[in-house]
């Protein structure tokens, strides 16, 4: 997924927040969306992507409500500590030794306590999902949360590890002479003399990962300029596809429905709408949060429209059987669509630069989550463990996966179907459920969380959990049946 979320903590306007959220969600998943969209048929794909956008929006509102609840609980604990300290300070000067002094602090509703001048549910402190899990879950729940995050990040790294060498291989080994466009290459085809495309892919894989490993222990910043070029690349692809369709030379004849492609499309869509784990960094700096709910809804409508436009132009512009896992690659060897060499190379190589920037960021996040899982109370590790062991367990598994397969559509589908389901559905549902249970004794039954989800009834929480469980069973059964047939 794209980066670009500010880490300075400086406030920004709701409009900037809307742009940041668009940047956050629209990323690598969008490049694999057209092929998955075509494989399921346009009617089925359109219906599923609309429904999954709705489900992702719902769980996003769950996370925002949990963030507001976490802020309220932190204020309550801080206020209780202050009252305890004040009471202790007063007792030092009391001459009453008869035992009729202060009573023990009690957990009591603080709805009426507005001395601070702001609502207790104001989101002013950035409370990450891991911290919320520690506040609302028991030890087992916290460990399960970190395991889910780690598995998802491993999938993310495997996708990024494969995407860069795929793009490099296609540019280096593909036909850019304007005579291709309808050619589908095999891994065993020659690239340079006796070097096959698969060999070239692995050479680029090792080179890219050595570069990323060298950056793992360095500080870095995400360049906003790459995001602007990222949007330019998407806009260019949509316009080029529309021009070809408008001329009547589009080759796409997508089926209306094909249920065989649904499980993979589900995973791709979940992955493509993923933002829940980054919401604290995104929402907290927004200066005016009165309309944060409307902002989130508007963003999901825009993103849904963007995905639909990108996918529909792709499936009617190109033959579905020739769509690449990385959609940008469809423009590198087809001069009927784009006959300017510089732009063809720009689209072919662009994912390399953006993903190369994001790979170390995801790797550092994964490494830090491993450290937190093993030792959440702070402290330091021996140099060998910190600089060798953690980087190795971070980088080796995704590199091995990318070495064995470069089927991006499957990698995105599996990551989204399993770990993505946990992060997008299961964790937000449990967070909001336990946040409500924790705050009721403290805030009182009449307390109103101004950032509460529109889906406030408990039915929606159980609906999300039931949906997640049924999807996991369906996807798993489909994988087993597919492998059995092979």
Automatic annotation (TrEMBL):
Q: Does the keyword Transmembrane apply?
A: yes
The Swiss-Prot or TrEMBL record describes its family as follows: Belongs to the TMEM104 family.
Region (Disordered) residue ranges read: 78-115
Q: Where found in the cell?
A: Membrane
Cellular component GO terms, alphabetical: membrane
From the Swiss-Prot or TrEMBL record, give the protein name.
Amino acid transporter transmembrane domain-containing protein
Q: How does it sit in the membrane?
A: Multi-pass membrane protein
Per the UniProt record, which residue ranges are transmembrane? Answer: 12-31, 43-70, 136-155, 300-323, 343-367, 388-408, 414-435, 459-481
| Entry annotated with the keyword Ion transport | no
Task: Report the source organism.
Answer: Xiphophorus couchianus
